[in-house]
Structure formats: C-alpha cells, structure tokens
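Quarterly update from the structural biology core.
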Amino acid sequence: MYKVYGDYNSGNCYKVKLMLNLLGSEYEWVPVDILNGETQTPAFLEKNPNGKIPVLELEDGTCLWESNAILNFLADGSRYLPSEPRLRTQVLQWQFFEQYSHEPSVAVARFIQFYLGLPAERMTEYRAMQKSGYRALAVMEQQLDRTPFLVGENFSIADIALYAYTHVAQIWHLTPEFGAGWIGSRRNRVMSVCWIDAPIG
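Predicted structure, tokenized:
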C-alpha cells in the first residue's frame, strides 16, 4: 500500500489525493504539519531531502517527491496519461506551466492569505501574485475555449495539476476578472470526471 505524506490543505498534496482516488488505489495518508517544521526533521528529510510535501512512499520504501512527478508515476499506463508522444508532451507542457507560471502566483497568494492571515508586510507581494495569477488563468481560459480539457478531448493529469489550486481561486480573491461562473464551469467539467467534491481548505 502507498503512503502519502502531506497536508490536506495543500493543493500539491490534493493532486496526489485526486489521482489515487481516480485510480481506486489504496493508500495511507500521513499528515505533515509544515508550519511546525515537520518537513525539516531528519526523519522526513530522509524521505525528501528537499523538505517539501507531498511525498509518495512505495511498498519497497522508495520515496517519490514533487507532485507532478508523482502524478506521472501514478498515471503511467492509464487513460489519464496519453501514450502518443505529442499528447504526452502537451501534458508535460501544462504541468511545467503549472509549476512555473500558475502555482507560484495562485498558490503563493493563497498561502499568504490562508496560512499567514494576510500580514501587512506581505500585502504588496500578495497583490503582485494576484496580478500574475490573472495572467496564468487567462492562458488556461484561451485553451479551454478551444478544447474541452487542457489536452484536447480527454481528461488527463494536466487537468488535475491545474485544477488543484484553480478550483478554490475565487475563495482567495484571485478571480475577479473571470468570476465565480468561470471557475464553476471549469470546476464542474473536471468534477464530472473526478466524482470528488471535497475542495481543499
């Protein structure tokens, strides 16, 4: 059985949870408190020397880290990861976009508000993250106006990767330019495939 070391409030951990549920895989969830330094203990650093969650521990003790790498491992051989090289590369394209353009804005803004409580000294950064977050959401909007899912006609781990933080973006005041309707329509599209209605906190 897999072990997942993570935080239920983390979008990156939520990706792994969604994937495992879609696959019907059994797993043990091991909660990790990032604010109390549990990712920096010697025991945790043996599992991930980078000191971050999520971590997926396999039955043989191998530990995999970085959420999108874990998604690719879990989805390999399933309908959620295309075998055709062009489509598979497009999945990776969106996962790189998520980590370099989307997550650094949307997730950081959420962290400042949800975990830190919007401290005054980080408000300038928070507003900058909102602005860059709008740009990332606009890129997604352009693609989803053309195709039902991010990689053509079929749901894939590209959608899971970008769904994790996007589906709660309006809660953290990150989507005024698109509105709740925009998030709702995209959320419902993914939810129809995921059959899970448990947003992250």
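Residues 85-193 form a domain with the Glutathione S-transferase Yfyf (Class Pi); Chain A, domain 2 fold (CATH 1.20.1050.10).
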